[in-house]
Amino acid sequence: MKKAKVFAICGALSLTLAAAGMAGCSGETSVDGTATALVINGEEVNAGTANFILRYQQAQTAYMMESYGFTTSGSSLWGTASDTSSYGYQFKDSIKDTITDLILLRQHASEYEVSLTDEELSQIDSVAQTVVDSNTDALAKIGATKDDVAEVLELYTYQAKMDEPMKADTDREVSDEEAAQTTITYTRIPLTTTDDSGNETVVSDEEKASLTADCEELISQVQATGDVANADISAIAEEINEDFFSSSYSYGSDDTAMPDSVHEAVDTLSDGELYDGVLEDTDTYLYVVRLDLAFDEEATETEKQSIISERETENYNNKLQEWKDAITVEEESAWTDLTVTDKDAYTVVQNTDSTDSSSTSGSSSTDSSSTSGSSSADSSTSGSSGAGSSSSDSSSVSGSSDSASDSSSSSSDDAAE
Q1: 186 beta partners
Q2: How far is CA 18 from each of CA 11, 59, 196, rounded to the nearest angstrom?
Q3: What is the mean pLDDT of residues 78-91?
């Protein structure tokens, strides 16, 4: 099982990098990749390695932000090189921290008996060659060679393998009292209205009285079912007023999402009991609430796992921070000369012509089907069985003199609801 896990780690990394193609400007080298960019705790990191990490992370970030609607094609994201308050300037600084983390994890790997096997190194070499074959012009532009790509793959593999041993000494004992969760079903209705301009107005006293009456009617109908504990409050509420919102909700002693009036009412109830009154969160919502389980074992177990996960992350981050606090990081001109700007943007683009290949754009455009003017398609790799397996991921990363674009988008629901 351990061997299979290692293959999965290396495979996942190969997918991340091998599925990405970054385009340059006619193959012209603009960065001396052999120059030292950073010196981290005495270890030199060349510009090819540092710039490869920087540009790939830039591409992933741009793709994510456009996909989620935080930015649009052609809009300014990174800013200009002279603006030290720009997102691009801050982003580059955060990538320096990322590179520092990666180097330190490898430097401390022996303390946790972590190393790379010959088989893993062979996988890394194979994947690095695939990346080079797919992205010749792009890598030339950013000054990265096969050795630089292999170095990045090695660093990320160490990062993945260090995660478990660094968290191994985490305290995983969580008491029922610490994690205890109460589960309720509630229905609420707003006491405000919003106009077309987004301005909120508190409802009038007459409107509030009408909404209160609707809540009282809901309580009456739920009680009339004769089985309050299992009554479908949501369905009943919708029949009364379509503005009602109903949901199940689990919370602990530190909950702040629900108003105090709800917490206090729930404390007076037994499992399956409906509170016989309308609750108000001043000028915000009216609530109707039922206590489902004062102590929800399943929700409590889920909360225990969440607490353990938080402790593991804190443990890991604390160790990493201790290492960072004890060392120095020197920036050389090869790093300070790199800029993250709108003029030199990278982003993920989707190749719609094939489900098995990644391609790169080799000119100052967002065409995802050519490299320096010629057609190119190369197989990606999958994380399911190692670095050499085929993948259906068709994304590539395009770098150009203008911001590249992607047409995919997604949305998310209100987390509170």
Answers
A1: 247, 289
A2: 10, 14, 47
A3: 90
Q: How far does CA 350 lie from the centroid of its chain?
A: 20
- Looking at residue 74, its pLDDT comes to 67
H helices of 203-266, where?
A: 205-224, 233-240, 260-266
DSSP for residue 378: E
What gap in Å lies between CA 349 and CA 211, rounded to an integer?
50
- 285 and 417 Cβ atoms separated by less than 8 Å: no
SS3 349: strand
* Dist CA 132 CA 369 (whole Å): 17
Euclidean distance between CA atoms 205 and 208, whole angstroms: 5
Q: Two tokens at 397? A: 């990363």
User: What is the C-alpha to C-alpha distance for residues 67 and 295, in angstroms, rounded to an integer?
Assistant: 40
Per-residue pLDDT, 412: 38
**Residues 6 or more apart whose Cβ sits within 8 Å of residue 150:** 124, 125, 128
Largest CA distance in the chain: 79
How many angstroms separate the first and last alpha carbons of the chain?
Answer: 40
280, pLDDT greater than 50? yes
HSE on the CB side for 177, CA within 13 Å? 0
pLDDT greater than 50 at residue 246: yes
pTM for the model stands at 0.74
Find the range with the poorest average confidence among 4-8, 179-183, 189-193, 267-271: 4-8
Question: What one-character DSSP code corresponds to residue 243?
Answer: T
Q: Which of 25-34, 75-84, 183-192 has the lowest mean pLDDT?
A: 25-34
Pairing assessment for the beta strands 182-190 and 285-293 based on DSSP bridges: antiparallel
The string of pLDDT tens digits covering residues 326-369 is 999 999 999 999 999 988 877 654 444 443 433 333 333 333 33
> Element (H or E) spanning 355, and its range?
none
CB under 8 Å to 390, separation ≥6 — which residues? 356, 379, 380, 381, 382
Tokens 């629900």 sit on residue: 258
> With left for phi above 0 and alpha for psi between -120 and 50, is residue 258 left, alpha or beta?
beta
